[in-house]
Amino acid sequence: MADTKDHAGTPGSGRPEPGSGRPGRVRYTATTLLRPFVDYRRLAWLWVRAFAQYPLSLVLMSLAVTVSVLTQVGAVVILFGHAGALAGFSVMEGLLVFGLASSAFGIADMFAGSVERLGNHIRSGTLDAMLIRPVSPLVQVAADEFSPRRLGKVVPALAILGVALSEVDVEWSAAKVGLPVLMVLSGTLICAAIWVITGCLQFFVADAREAANSLTYGGQALTEYPIAIYGQEVVRSVTYVVPLAFISWQPALLVLDRPDPLGMPEQLRYLGPVVAVLLCLCAALTWRFGLRHYRSTGS
Amino acid sequence: MTPNETLHRETPGEPIIEAVGLGRDFVLSEGPFLRRTRRRVSAVGDVTFTVRAGEIVGYLGPNGAGKSSTMKMLTGILTPTSGTVRVAGLEPARRRTRLAAEIGVVFGQRTTLWWDLPLRDSLSLTRHLYRVPEREHAERLAELTELLELGPFLDTPVRQLSLGQRMRGDLTAALLHAPRLLVLDEPTIGLDVVSKSTIREFLLRTNAERGTTILITTHDLGDVERLCDRVMVIDHGRLVFDGDLPELRATVPVPRVLVVDLAAPAPRIEVPGAHAVRVEGPRQWLELRDNPARVIAEVAGDHEVVDLTLREPDIETVVSSLYRGTVSVERADGS
Whole-angstrom Cα distance, residue B176 to residue B170? Predict the structure, then answer.
């Protein structure tokens, strides 16, 4: 968002010309570029207020999510504790991988997880209602039923990441401090992009949700452990085919400054943000393609 | 926003919808998994029409004729597979978000409001999404609240509203950003007589005062007779009629009927230019093939007539005979 603000100052950028239906080129200004975020916030806030009407339910649901995260953490600790080290990763280093993966997944789920319900919107016709509003339907679908309960996952995940980062044996230089933030950010974008891409399947196949979940939730389970333990074939496919390796595995190698145990190119670990941007671009194109082929329902 | 300075009925404005050869196909996959066959089905064939600013146009057709598909292409929901369409100067599917500011859409079958929010909050959220200035919104909401009598249920959650209330809420949401074109897909479906008439009066007023163009699909021919200057009839994806109501009546030879009340029951009347199609005691229904004045003179010469009424064929009969006509033509072509 920071770079979009710069455009505000460039000469010639003003509000898009008001007026009636004159077909003109879309002018991108700070205002128009920020619109999706502003609209998202408004729609999300609406749901927060709606959920806040039942505070007890909200708290219990959040706690349930937190408990499930903590169970997974327990599994990691026990596994690494018994094995001593997996793929050369100690318990704390294992938790670092876990923290990166579940933070990225949790934040992506919070902001874009609703996209997986696209099929429901198509079947019930609510997508039609979204399409006639002057707001990106992707924003509307993503913000739909935005629930603060998902913080129940994000907060403990970030906490574990924080603990792991402070415990692992790393020399923190000034340059390295910003690294975890960038990693979580690009991991989040990768997760969200995969979510959108798989969600778009529902434009074509009515019940693609389960198939998509194998990639989204399955991918999450995969990235919570140092993926070297799954063997070379898996690592290759999640590096080059579905780039899940850039969510937690390559970033962890970068932070820990460790050679790749499978001998993959060392440069890969710097590519996280690039992969994230490319994948988001890919997601945007898929979404457009899906929308162009949207068939709507009868009536 | 520009007030309608002239009487639109006499001087229609610039084109607001221009559809040329518009069509939409769907690919259907059928049969078991491995022997699945793909079949192209045309929902809308080759539809060409122009709607000018200020018109109220009824878009009629039986279920599955392609009405909704056309509406969805006009609003940018569906991408056409052939032909071109411009609405308010924009290509809907490509410039959907931009177009949304120029048009208001109401689907009778489903709401565009947020189910769990009070109507007032739904409308205020709509204001933000459409970027309507606060003051303009307040003024327009006050006006619409009065015209559509929203007052009693502005603070009720949408899911608790009756169908008629919800429809009035939806209309308000569609009009708050002062669109130039209002697209209504079966807006009176399932409503009682009072709600229907409130909505019709309101639409006429909106059209007259603001010059809002209205395109309306409906199965309720009362809507058509009350509202529409012009009717387009679509059947099997093709426009089979485009003109005003008198023309529509003239197109399809549905004869006028003269209802004659005689002083006493009489045998079936047969006179030159008319014959009785129904007899009930002293009342007879004569189907006219000729000038009614001459028929009346003939009948009055032979019988003692108590009362007379001349019935124009109602639009329902005309339209359904139009559908039937095209159905049989299509079948003849197809086989």
Answer: 10
